[in-house]
Design brief:
218 residues; Rossmann fold; two-stranded antiparallel ribbon; 25% strand
Length: 218
């Protein structure tokens, strides 16, 4: 007698337990992750690994982030239902989808047109109508829609992202990996209401670098 294959629900339940054990305990964040099918955002070659707590390759040399990092960064934003969020680096759209379930509007910027178009199709499939996309230079943010309640950066900025911090509300929160090397520092900037920020270090992470401009694709 052979063991029956695990269902998607079982694999997701195991992933949620793993995230909780690592410190992602916000029930709203865990619920958003549980309701977002990661396999939709994963290339066919890696769909069998969609429920693993690991980063996976996607097109254009980018990655879909490890679920723990997605949960950690989302939790650190302390999102409210009426929040307007700016995301830098749409990628596969997985993190975007999580944010969209926890906030009013998500503005997301992607420098690879291929990734942006594929993500837009996934948002349509999931019926996510509160996501607004833009093909552009993420380092410049989205000044026309600023200020934002929250900003998430999903690529490593070489130094403090002052342009993005300037697009944050006085009491807003920005979460971003900072550093030039292969390992970066994940930081949470919380506005003090008077133009300054309290900076909290959340641990070491590995992200692709935040690059200037938009990509030229063949």
């Amino acid at each position: 007698m052979t063991d029956e294959p695990e269902t998607s629900q079982t694999r997701m339940a195991r992933l949620i337990l793993a995230l909780r054990s690592q410190g992602v305990t916000d029930p709203r964040v865990l619920d958003a992750i549980e309701r977002t099918p990661r396999e939709i955002f994963t290339p066919d070659l890696f769909k069998e690994r969609a429920f693993e707590d690991s980063a996976l390759p996607i097109a254009c040399g980018q990655t879909i982030s490890q679920p723990f990092i997605v949960g950690l960064m989302t939790q650190a934003l302390t999102l409210e239902p009426r929040a307007r969020v700016l995301e830098i680096g749409t990628g596969s759209g997985y993190q975007t989808a999580i944010l969209s379930r926890l906030s009013r509007l998500v503005y997301t910027v992607e420098r690879y047109r291929t990734l942006m178009r594929e993500a837009e199709e996934r948002f349509k499939t999931l019926g996510l109508v509160n996501v607004i996309t833009r093909f552009g230079d993420g380092g410049e943010g989205w000044a026309e829609q600023a200020p934002f309640d929250r900003i998430m950066v999903t690529a490593a900025a070489p130094e403090e992202p002052r342009t993005l911090l300037a697009q944050l509300k006085p009491n807003g929160v920005l979460v971003a990996p900072i550093g030039k090397g292969p390992v970066q520092s994940l930081r949470r900037y919380a506005g003090d209401g008077q133009g300054g920020f309290k900076v909290e270090l959340l641990g070491d992470v590995r992200f692709v670098p935040l690059l200037d401009g938009v990509a030229r694709e063949l």
